[in-house]
Specification:
By secondary structure, the chain is an alpha/beta fold. The chain folds into three domains: about 50 residues; about 110 residues, 3-Layer(aba) Sandwich (D-Maltodextrin-Binding Protein, domain 2), CATH 3.40.190; about 120 residues, Periplasmic binding protein-like II (D-Maltodextrin-Binding Protein, domain 2, 3-Layer(aba) Sandwich). About 45% of the residues lie in helices and about 20% in strands. It is built from eleven helices and 13 strands. Helix 1 runs antiparallel to helix 2. The two termini are about 45 Å apart. The relative contact order is 0.15.
Length: about 300
């Protein structure tokens, strides 16, 4: 409609110009020639403006806008924030928010319709998929076992780790370390990290925790500040305040997880209520970005493994 109005007004101006020139005398060839050239230039300008306007309208029609709400795993905080910030930078009219309430709580929020994406640092449960949640794996994470930096033991076997968490071994001296009580630190019930850790080791509901903490960051802080402490955290959260122990002679690295030689690993899931193809254009674009080269690069930049 805007285009039609603009063309109508331009044609009116051209008609007025033609009538004015005609009134001056049709015998004035020079003026008539100049008038024809002027009219041709005007028509070209109108065409160019129409094309520019069409391109601008098309760009406005395809530009992304709106809000995306996520909630869930605290282990996915670094990844979720990085993806949100980069996607918003690339799309100025989009807002992406993330809350870190734990994996189970995130899926509950998704199925309740209060968020668009539920983040879980584990595979979805049968009850969650039965409720309509769809598992979209966006990265692979390793679970690092961390101890206090002053601990002389920096390597454990899988069986030793199981014995520690089941409370069968209670002092580091029993494993060849110093005479120091073992402080078994874990995550709260409903944590995706806890669920994956216990499932991989086959110790669900059998752990003898001294402390159950509500975020990955607090587990790192407790291991860093407590002599004899041991805990498990997302690989990308390991820093120089703690020591990540070798398990069965293998270091917790992305390379070893890719190779399949490090046994403590789990998926990072961004669940949707229904398939991605059933979501809004904005949500679909967000997942297209995650699985793009730019998204893959970002996933790897925060210490995770991108999915193929």
């Amino acid at each position: 409609m805007k285009k039609q109005i603009r063309r109508f007004l331009t044609l009116c101006s051209m008609t007025a110009l033609t009538l004015t020139l005609a009134a001056c005398g049709s015998g004035q060839n020079t003026s008539s020639k100049a008038s024809a050239e002027t009219l041709a230039q005007t028509e070209n300008t109108v065409a160019e403006n129409d094309t520019s306007s069409d391109n601008q309208t098309q760009a406005e029609d395809t530009a992304l806008s709106g809000q995306i709400a996520m909630a869930g795993s605290t282990s996915m905080e670094k990844l979720a924030n990085a993806l949100a910030e980069d996607f918003m930078e690339k799309n100025g009219d989009v807002t992406v928010t993330a809350e870190f309430t734990g994996s189970s709580a995130g899926i509950e929020s998704l199925l309740a319709g209060s968020v668009d994406i539920g983040n879980a640092s584990r595979n979805l449960k049968d009850s969650e998929t039965a409720g309509g949640a769809v598992e979209n794996i966006v990265a692979i994470d390793g679970i690092a076992v961390v101890v206090n930096p002053e601990n002389s033991l920096t390597a454990l076997t899988k069986d030793q780790l199981i014995s520690i968490y089941k409370g069968e071994v209670t002092n580091w001296s029993e494993l060849g370390g110093s005479d120091e009580p073992i402080v078994v630190v874990g995550r709260e019930a409903g944590s995706g990290t806890r669920g994956a850790f216990e499932e991989i080791l086959g110790i669900e509901d059998a752990c003898a925790y001294a402390l159950e903490l509500d975020s990955t960051g607090t587990v790192v802080a407790k291991a860093a500040s407590t002599a004899g402490a041991i805990g498990y955290v997302s690989l990308d959260m390991v820093d120089d305040t703690v020591t990540a122990v070798e398990l069965d002679g293998t270091e917790a690295t992305a390379e070893n997880i890719k190779a399949g030689s490090y046994f403590l690993s789990r998926p990072f899931v961004m669940a949707t209520a229904g398939e991605i193809s059933d979501q809004s254009a904005l949500i679909q674009s967000f997942f297209e970005y995650i699985y793009s080269d730019a998204g893959t690069e970002l996933v790897e930049s925060v210490g995770l493994i991108a999915v193929d």
